[in-house]
Design brief:
alpha+beta, two-stranded antiparallel sheet, two-stranded antiparallel ribbon, 6 helices, 4 strands, 15% strand
């Protein structure tokens, strides 16, 4: 994998390392609950209690998902009294990635959902 630098020089990247990092990022996005949290945070900052109310998930589940997303650098928090306010860390890039995923899903139709390895009925 190569990346073109702004000065038109080519920067060589260790492809196995880059692919591993990309796979790790996609695994962090591979849970419907985490994707729902990201979608809610795209509309603005939220507290855990707000996310639990909006998503119908347990507080412990939301907190665990937020910790995963924070550890992956996708969300950040700031203290607000006794609570934390959560937001997207890289909003523009993340929304661009999710929009691209939606376009790809539209192009592939039901193929991903029907995939015997990773689809909705796959044995995990």
């Amino acid at each position: 994998m190569t990346m073109v630098h702004a000065a038109s020089s080519v920067l060589h990247v260790n492809e196995p390392v880059a692919m591993s990092a990309a796979a790790c990022m996609f695994r962090s996005l591979g849970d419907p609950g985490r994707l729902a949290i990201l979608r809610h945070l795209a509309s603005g900052e939220h507290r855990v209690v707000d996310l639990t109310a909006h998503l119908g998930l347990a507080q412990s589940t939301v907190s665990a998902h937020l910790a995963c997303l924070r550890d992956c650098g996708l969300v950040s928090s700031r203290p607000h009294g006794r609570a934390s306010i959560w937001s997207l860390a890289h909003s523009a890039q993340l929304m661009e990635l999710l929009a691209s995923a939606e376009r790809l899903l539209a192009a592939t139709g039901d193929a991903v959902a029907l995939c015997p390895t990773y689809g909705e009925t796959a044995l995990r």
